[in-house]
Amino acid sequence: MAFVLQVDFKMSGPFGDEMAEAFSDLAKSINEEEGFIWKIWTESPETEEAGGIYLFKTKETAEKYLDMHSKRLAGFGIPKVNAKVFAVNSKLTEITKGPVQ
């Protein structure tokens, strides 16, 4: 069973193309994380928020990544991270064309 990790936090930028350029090395490194399947990057310049929706192979790998990522964000000056881990209902997600592997 796959698990979704939903993360968001306050961030003053960069956003858009500047964000893509600034965080491309970080994005590449996320591909190497244990149990990682994919990530959708999220951003809202209007509310100064960013984050992502991740898919991991297990709850344990999602929680392990969240712990590491929260510490990394704190090092970037982002002390408060909102996060939740959810189990994926694969049968219903398949019907609605969700990208679950």
UniProtKB/TrEMBL annotation:
Task: Kindly give the InterPro entries that the UniProt entry links to this protein.
Answer: Dimeric_a/b-barrel (IPR011008), YdhR (IPR014910)
* Top-level taxon in the UniProt lineage: Bacteria
What name does the UniProt record give this protein?
Answer: Monooxygenase
GO molecular function terms attached to this record: monooxygenase activity
Q: Keywords, A to Z? A: Monooxygenase, Oxidoreductase
Q: Which organism is it from?
A: Siminovitchia acidinfaciens
